[in-house]
């Protein structure tokens, strides 16, 4: 039997008009899977009733009366909104009614609620967020992109284990390679924490490649790139800024005058091919790792296509035993250490 | 009278075939300026003799018998190569024969030798490297990109002062805005050091904008972006990797078949306009800041056009009293604090 994904249908910038069509598309392309749509019944029922016969019991609605706002303080969402669509979706993972939860809502609230409801896996101190980036060779998983600043070497080691197990589960790689993000100067290889983390990773039994630099992310040098949440956030946001600037410059050059506009029309097929290859929607769906359950965060502005990718990613991770893989790896590592 | 720039002609991947033509182009476009070409006489003399009459005493050669290798340990270059072109160029700044030095050589060695020969400015603990990046609005100066890992809040404050004074000198801005690179999560605004640095910058009298995120670099939100050397290195290298990946994808899409190759030919003018706007050669020339003298580091692979930009940048900084500006600002700040 396939996996059941609990979908927070009210989260994100668009809510049900995006999340429900995405869920239906996911069910169509995954005939073994099931989905539980969580949210306000009056918003979901009309969208679902039309397709009830198509999916039968593979598609269910679970009512949740509240919504976590995008700018709401996480502590507030956690304490005061026990019937929010986000909370109920995660509760379904906790009770085992669903194998994974997906939300495009408030990241901080999703992290706080997931941690509170699901608890951490043994041996993992903090949850991490792993995102997928396109590379010259395919794709790379980078973590942490969450809120883990001031990390210790042990935290970075745990990120390495979780990232490797994520890639093993969703990309079906036996021994994903793990790189530690560092700086290039030969004389001074990183700060103290990173140096220690390198030693821990080398002794971890993981397929540790060694240090990588910022440009290795997009070269695709390793399957996993490990860094603390501060550095990861800067790397990701800097990339977003650069990509936006380059896209703007390209657009401006092609819309300078009627001649360049004509050039754009002629070159459209090649430009479209380019656009597809770097389409961030294909990489949507960041994994919250270290929890006793699969939780995937979609970008808040995701459209239906992008949100569908996040649901599929959650189903893939749950169907391929992500949580068990992390647990086994951590316990094997701790046995060696003991 | 204009400034005199000491040019390490032997450094970089190409040596005199790039550095000498760049120096001559610089002298042609800066009729007030002078240049001292430093390096092996037998390599420089033939290139200079042809143009001696054109420049008169604006162009001189200073012999230096040794060369610092690109992969040489900095400590070795500093101790054992006292007659290297790099060392002699910096010595000329020390003695006042030149107002600035430029090198495309080994970064670590340039940093170590500059620090040893020129010494630090009062109140500055560590030298920093500031680079220029293109933005949607123009350009932004980012520092540190050197080897300053494990920075304190005071170091970040000093970077802010030095970056602002650099922009004041070379971009002729009265009160350049300074941003502190941080992460976006509302709940957890950065690590402890960055939080403290924010407080120091707020009280510094600089035009402090507040926190910026990675994407603000390329948005051009502030004139200066301050971060520690680890984060800065990752941001810069990640940008290089992304830009290379995007360029590769674009090239691949346009060379897929004869039809897309034709598209590329048609679109060439627009693609060239795009290429010019992001041409990193225009931004060549990173400033080594905090020293008692102007030192500019060119990219090792720079061509003559790129190296000329680095020379011009050094001349601009020296001609606009960069060192005095930093000294005055630091002493004003310390008087307030005292």
Automatic annotation (TrEMBL), chains A, B:
Pathways per UniProt: Lipid metabolism; phospholipid metabolism
UniProt cross-references to SUPFAM superfamilies, sorted A to Z: Isocitrate/Isopropylmalate dehydrogenase-like
Subcellular localization, as worded in the UniProt entry: Cytoplasm
EC number in record: 2.3.1.274
Keyword Cell inner membrane applies: no
GO annotation, cellular component aspect: cytoplasm
GO MF term list: phosphate:acyl-[acyl carrier protein] acyltransferase activity
Acyltransferase as UniProt keyword: yes
Catalytic activity: a fatty acyl-[ACP] + phosphate = an acyl phosphate + holo-[ACP]
Alphabetical keyword list: Acyltransferase, Cytoplasm, Lipid biosynthesis, Lipid metabolism, Phospholipid biosynthesis, Phospholipid metabolism, Transferase
Top-level class of the enzyme under EC nomenclature: transferase
InterPro entries: FA_synthesis, Phospholipid_synth_PlsX-like
Single GO BP term: fatty acid biosynthetic process
Function: Catalyzes the reversible formation of acyl-phosphate (acyl-PO(4)) from acyl-[acyl-carrier-protein] (acyl-ACP). This enzyme utilizes acyl-ACP as fatty acyl donor, but not acyl-CoA.
Subunit relationships: Homodimer. Probably interacts with PlsY.
Family: Belongs to the PlsX family.
The protein's name: Phosphate acyltransferase
Species this chain originates from: Azoarcus indigens
Highest classification ranks of the organism: Bacteria, Pseudomonadati, Pseudomonadota, Betaproteobacteria, Rhodocyclales
Gene for this chain: plsX
